[in-house]
Amino acid sequence: MYGGPIGLLLGYIVMGTIVYCVMITLGEMVAFLPIPGGHIKLAERFVDPAFSFALGWNYWYSWMISSPSSALLINYWNDTVNNSVWVAMCFVVVLTINMHGTGAYGEAEFIFASSQSPVLSSRIVIDLGGGPNHDRIGFRYWKNPGLFVQYNGIQGAEGQFIGWRAVLTQAAFSFIGTEICFSKNPPSYLAKAIHQVYVRILLFYIGGTRHWSACTIQQSLLQSNSGTAQSPFVIATETA
Questions:
Q1: DSSP H helical segments within the chain, as ranges?
Q2: 53-65 burial by CB neighbour count: b if 16+ within 10 A, else e?
Q3: What region, left, alpha or beta, does residue 155 occupy, with left being phi > 0 and alpha being psi -120 to 50 degrees?
Q4: How far is CA 187 from its chain centroid?
Q5: Residue 131 contacts by C-beta under 8 Å, 6 or more apart in sequence?
Q6: Which 3 state secondary structure label does DSSP give 151?
Q7: d(CA 186, CA 117)
Q8: Helix, strand or coil for residue 205?
Q9: Phi-psi group of 129: left, alpha or beta (phi > 0 → left; psi -120 to 50 → alpha; rest → beta)
Q10: Are 216 and 222 in contact (CB under 8 A)?
């Protein structure tokens, strides 16, 4: 919506590179000093307690504003139930998982993350013409309306650059949670796990945006819809 097909892809490539560098650095710090509290306590140890305090509340705030988004997703398919019910149910699930320790959290994370594979596979099938309308999309929307869009009607390279910059903000928010990792023996296992983060970034984030941009960059749909109806996954599924 903001950066166009290439703006979207470049935004996630740049942010994915930054996240990978941060994860490598964080992995070295945790392997060297595996203390309870993760990156929040590391900020206190290596920088300042005030920085750790600000980082912790910012982290809490980011999760609190993203949790109610579940209500928006469910409400799109069923608007007969009050949104507060869905929010409360999601909070109960999250609290229950966290109360059962790292083992339960790891299993839940594996199950939830595994659901991304069929979703991404379905986008590939739609892109190749496997949807109900058998319309092979390919790079159609990269040609029309084009590789970039003019952000907020600002013409020229300035509008394209601002649109790409807006993509960076959304991409940064979508990478929240990449830093979560649990291990009973961090010095032995954490290094291997951290070095495999690039697979997740390339496959699910950058690979996913490539197919989002191919399947759903129809500016009329992106701009006319709002909330969940503006999701690339929803648009691609409904127009297939």
A1: 4-32, 38-46, 49-66, 69-77, 83-99, 101-114, 116-127, 140-143, 156-174, 186-195, 197-200, 207-216, 219-224, 232-239
A2: eebbeeeeeeeee
A3: beta
A4: 28
A5: 125, 240
A6: helix
A7: 27
A8: helix
A9: left
A10: yes
As given in the structure block, the two tokens for residue 160 are 């394209």
pLDDT at 238: 65
Q: For the chain, what is the mean pLDDT?
A: 76
Q: What is the pTM of this model?
A: 0.70
Q: Residue holding tokens 């092979």?
A: 136
Q: What CA–CA distance (Å, rounded) separates 71 from 79? A: 10
pLDDT in tens, 27-71: 888 778 777 777 788 888 888 999 999 988 988 887 777 777 777
Radius of gyration of the chain (CA): 20
CA-based nearest residue to 147, from 123, 163, 131: 163
3 with 166: CB under 8 angstroms? yes
87-94 contacts at long range (C-beta below 8 A, 24 or more positions apart): 91/67, 94/67
Phi and psi (nearest 5°) for 74? -70, -35
pLDDT score for 54: 92
Most confident of 55-59, 86-90, 150-154, 200-204: 55-59
DSSP 153: G
Q: How far apart are CA 76 and CA 227, in angstroms?
A: 8
Q: Round to whole Å and give the CA distance between 64 and 232.
A: 23
Say which residue the tokens 């961090």 belong to: 186
Cis peptide before 145 (omega within 30 of 0): yes
